[in-house]
Write a structure and sequence with these properties.
Chains A, B: Pathway: Purine metabolism; IMP biosynthesis via de novo pathway; 5-amino-1-(5-phospho-D-ribosyl)imidazole from N(2)-formyl-N(1)-(5-phospho-D-ribosyl)glycinamide: step 1/2. Two copies of one chain form a homodimer. In chain A, 29% of the residues lie in helices and 39% in strands. With 84 residues, chain A is of the alpha+beta class. Chain A has a three-stranded antiparallel sheet with strand order 2-1-3. The radius of gyration of chain A is 17 Å and the shape is elongated. The two termini of chain A are 21 Å apart.
């Protein structure tokens, strides 16, 4: 029997342009408060690293994003297959 | 006078191996609850997108990470310069 093989997938979730990012603004103000100049904008997103069975289909991964990992009303997501 | 030019930087912040990730485990259980098979592990990190003046030094960016953007006791960070 073939030993189960896994693949590493990264999901990059970020707020859609135009969506207010209070967390990003708080970090922006904190950076300026620490004296860092030249910071024009800060946006905070999520980086989800998945170890999946290597026979998991692209459709299943997209479905995971649509149903749970990203709030597609206000967020975009990008699926990245990490070289083993 | 030269118009201020900005560059896009992405900071990938992830928990160090071995550090417990309760958020990742919650998502893992939720995926299984939705019927997705073959999920071996889930780790959640942060994706911070910065628009910085293009004369910001690498040292200054690293200092932003060390002082604010990452908790270096339990997190690793990777700085990515995004092509304009």
């Amino acid at each position: 029997m073939r030993k189960a093989a896994f693949m590493k997938i990264r999901i990059h979730v970020s707020l859609k342009p135009g969506v207010l990012d209070p967390q990003g603004r708080a970090v922006h103000h904190a950076l300026e408060g620490l004296g860092f100049a030249g910071v024009d904008d800060v946006r905070i997103g999520r980086l989800i690293e998945l170890e999946l069975a290597d026979n998991t289909s692209d459709d299943a991964i997209a479905e995971m994003c649509e149903k749970l990992l990203a709030n597609t009303v206000i967020e975009n997501y990008r699926i990245e297959k990490v070289a083993a």
